[in-house]
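# nightly structure sweep
# worker-07 picked up a monomer target from the shared queue
# config: single-sequence mode, recycle default, output format = structure tokens
# input follows
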Amino acid sequence: MAIYKYVGFIGKLDLTAFDQLYNPGDRTPFTGIYRCEACGHEDARNTGDPLPPEDHAQHNPNQGAVKWRLTVFAYGR
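# output follows
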């Protein structure tokens, strides 16, 4: 879970990229924090970087396939 101290530094944006699931090794469309849907591990990535591989952490077979979701979009102006 991404954690922050100053609420003024975080904004809400209805971006469809938050709804997308990405595969291990996919290139990231946005700089931000991505969360593994299987185990909850989070990883920061820059635009164009590959997402971590499927073996980024030990997974219980019951957790399902590794899929990554954008949770925090690093938006700059």
